[in-house]
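Bug #77: duplicate submission created two jobs. Keeping one. Sequence:
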Amino acid sequence: AHAADEVMWMECMRQMGERLHEQGQSQQATMRGEAERREEEHSMHVSRLNHGFLTERAHLDAEVSDLRVRLDQSCEEGAAAMHMMRQTRETAEAEITKR
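Kept job's structure:
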């Protein structure tokens, strides 16, 4: 009877060990899946942030480029106006000198 009890106890321990092992593997798989899911979410978030940054950067680059063109045009217009004023002044001075 004692040997039979011992065999039963050993079998019980073996089954309990198997169940614990299966539970451990199951938990490990769950945790691994959760870690992969979080990593994927993080990666997508970083990707979205990066895309947003690049889009904003392109928008700002285009704005700066537009402002540079407008500034160049203003400078050219200013230079042309100065030239015309100089010519007008010289013409007026020449007229005054003739008189």
